[in-house]
Design brief:
By secondary structure, the protein is an alpha+beta fold. It has one domain (7-132): 3-Layer(aba) Sandwich (Chemotaxis protein chec). It contains 3 helices and 8 strands. A hairpin with a 5-residue loop joins strand 3 and strand 4 (48-52). The longest helix is centred in the middle third of the chain and has 12 residues, at 53-64.
């Protein structure tokens, strides 16, 4: 596995039948207290985004206000806002991540946790590169 200065987090998968299976992303204790809500969604270049509710609402509104004349804006709206799910952090500092989101980000048992400004990116270690990290922010107004 490549070395990386970012924190590695683990994804657990309980032994249940596949159609009922849920994957849990174990969070650092300081990121979100138990019982708080996080927004988990797709990132446009093959990773997951995690936002606290406090930071999600302004980011979502900024994305929804993007002009419709650029097809990239519509893609951002569909990918980021259209796939957003609110999940609650459990007592063990885990959050449920839907299987389709894990498949989209190609997450296995280990993932990189990359804190960026007001959100966290969750990457497959084999797909992560500093060039990909934060690239979606270039699509937002004022960039």
């Amino acid at each position: 596995m490549p070395t990386n200065p970012h924190q590695t987090v683990y994804i657990t998968q309980p032994t249940t039948p596949p159609r009922f299976r849920r994957r849990y992303l174990t969070l650092p204790d300081r990121f979100a207290p138990a019982g708080s809500n996080l927004i988990v969604t797709m990132g446009p270049t093959g990773f997951l985004l995690l936002f606290s509710e406090k930071f999600w609402v302004p980011q979502r509104d900024k994305i929804l206000l993007l002009p419709g004349d650029d097809p990239r804006n519509g893609a951002l709206k569909r990918v980021i806002v259209g796939n957003a799910r609110t999940e609650t952090v459990d007592k063990r500092h885990r959050v449920v991540v839907a299987n389709d989101l894990c498949e989209f980000a190609q997450l296995g048992k280990i993932a990189y946790w990359v804190p960026v400004a007001n959100h966290v990116e969750v990457w497959n270690p084999e797909l992560f590169s500093p060039d990909n990290c934060c690239s979606w922010l270039n699509y937002l107004p004022g960039k």
